[in-house]
Amino acid sequence: MFEARLLRSSILKKVLEAIKDLLTQATFDCDDNGIQLQAMDNSHVSLVSLTLRADGFDKYRCDRNISMGMNLGSMSKILKCAGDKDTVTMKAQDNADTVTFVFESPNQEKVSDYEMKLMNLDLEHLGIPETEYSCTIRLPSAEFARICRDLSQFGESMVISCTKEGVKFSATGDIGSANVKLAQTASVDKEEEAVVIEMEEPVTLTFACQYLNYFTKATSLSPQVQLSMSADVPLVVEYRIQDIGHIRYYLAPKIEEEDS
Amino acid sequence: MGILGLSKLIADIAPQAVKECDIKNYFGRKIAIDASMSLYQFLIAVRSEGNQLTTVNGEPTSHLMGTFYRTIRLVENGIKPVYVFDGKPPEMKSHQLDKRAERREEAEKELQKATEAGDQASIDKFNRRLVKVTRQHGEEARELLRLMGVPTVEAPCEAEAQCAELVKAGKVFAVATEDMDALTFGSTVLLRHLTFSEARKMPVQEFHLDQVLDGLGLKQEEFIDLCILLGCDYCGSIRGVGPKRAIDLIRQHRSLEQVLKNIDTAKYQPPEDWSYQDARRLFLTPEVAKADDVQLKWSDPDEEGLVKFLCGDRQFSEERVRNGAKKLMKARSGTTQGRLDGFFKVTTTPNPKRKADDDKKNAANKKAKSGGGGRGRKPK
User: Fold this and answer.
1) DSSP E strands, B63-177
2) Can you name the residues that pair with B30 across neighbouring β-strands?
3) Are the C-beta atoms of B178 and B192 separated by less than 8 Å?
4) Which one of A67, B60, B159, B280 has the lowest number of neighbouring Cβ atoms within 10 Å?
């Protein structure tokens, strides 16, 4: 028996919004510690890793580890049926082939349940090694979303270069070029609005704007976003979800053509 | 050509070995393409109003049209193609080639009949059957590819075998051909329908040899014996043994020698002087150029050269050729998107068993699908 209850359904709704454009289907792996999801997009360029810890739920019970393959489009449709203030409960029997979502309104007057068929997915699982990154940049998530949106009008790819002066985002295309520089915030009044850069050595990498724009769908989950970069390895874009977990996106960089 | 009924057998018994993918997902991959197979497809499929495209003198140019535009399509999707051309056919194939010649004669007769009767549909049909890829077609295509900056490899013998060698050595990611015997030669990854027209919306089928062997429960040598039993290009097979019985026999007896000892030869007659051992040797150690000796180099397209080669007598539109050359150029400049699986290792492929159950349910569905690859293949 698996049961997970969240007082605020909005968290789950936002999580789905943050991944459903990138993935069409994914497996939710549930165990004692919580819910994990790891999946690559179809073209194997980016990866989503979601963790929702058991202690972040208002009630969490998982007798036996289960993996639930879900069609994220369908799941998103179901979650759209929940009000923001509703309580949501996910339930599944052991070895079940369906999962049930129960929504309860705050005053308990309305209770709705939706049952969804599970899928047998055979998806590749990637082992991601613990990595020390040369640069980590924390900035307001809305700022990052704005930069990605603005620069994607200029070109397909965006160069992110991080030096000790600050971080520079740039794009070049047919209409011209665009550069956005962010300097480290000098005095921190509100932590959420700060730009903080930790740097071992400068890094410059190129990424596809299209994917970054998919990632910024998670903006509403967290006021801050953290970018981690090292030369020649995938970028990590992390949004912390308060009190419950995080969502991490990995994106393979674009590589200069070696002449072969 | 190819192995009789192998793709259907795999789809039925080892469905997890076949994946359907979108062409977009192969960006950045180097892929070896069996050139004779694609030229053949183009000669058949690239037509206007049922007639081949020709030069002012009536020489066909369908193969050039196909090679040009479909290669551009691959390159635009970020794929790096290598074309592998056939060398001399192995002696063992002569029997098969004789048969093909016979069939051509028949088709020719039928064509005459149809022309006399004025039956347009049959005329088209037999016209297509008469299509043959000649030495000259190959030469022209190679010249075109050179101008496009796409590398070509001439195999000493069979192109599929050479492709397999390149894949095995990791020089390329996969082999693109319709011939299933690329698997018999040991290609680890085989792609079908890659060079099909975009308009047909046919997904690319990806076969993984290790999963095929796993699904069939065979080793590579046993798999080769199975293919010989199903019917290959190099020798005959036992009359009355279909795919189902073939897999059962190999699973039970594990080699053709044992199969021969154990079956009732009166009922199932093996061909006289059955040279299956030679065929097996040909699959195991085909005549190929060592992968290390093969240099693959992609270069810039030669726009003026292309215009000179394709326009004029061959009647290609200059504007479209120049456009094509620009597309090739554009795909070369700039950066290539990396892949995550190049950075992180795949650790598990969860629950294949559940998948198998699932596929059983869809089996009826699958069968209907796999039957449909008919158009654009060589006539048996």
Assistant:
1) 80-85, 152-154, 174-176
2) B80
3) yes
4) A67
Structural tokens at position B69: 């535009």
Contact of A95 with chain B, judged by CB distance below 8 Å, is answered with no
Residue of B nearest to A124 (CA): B349
Q: Is A175 at the interface with chain B, CB within 8 A?
A: no
Q: Please list, in sequence order, all residues whose beta carbon lies within 8 angstroms of the beta carbon of residue A210, skipping any fewer than 6 positions away.
A: A152, A156
Would you tell me how many other CB atoms lie within 10 Å of the CB of residue A232?
10
Positive/negative CA dihedral, A65, A69, A75, A78: negative
ipTM of the complex: 0.75
Helix (H) / strand (E) containing A243 = none
3-state secondary structure at position A221: helix
Position B348 confidence tier, pLDDT thresholds 50, 70, 90: low
Distances in Å between the Cα of B91 and the Cα atoms of A157, B153, B235, B278 are 53, 21, 11, 11
Under 8 Å between Cβ of A114 and A80: no
Assign B361 a pLDDT band (cuts: 50, 70, 90). very low
Residue B270: the pLDDT is 83
Chain B residues close to A129, C-beta within 8 Å:
344
Structure tokens at B61: 């140019």
Question: Would you tell me how many other CB atoms lie within 10 Å of the CB of residue B52?
Answer: 20
What is the rounded end-to-end Cα distance, in angstroms, of chain B? Answer: 7
Task: Read off the pTM.
Answer: 0.76
Strand A177-183 vs strand A166-172: parallel, antiparallel, or unpaired? antiparallel
- For A41, phi and psi rounded to 5 degrees? -75, 170
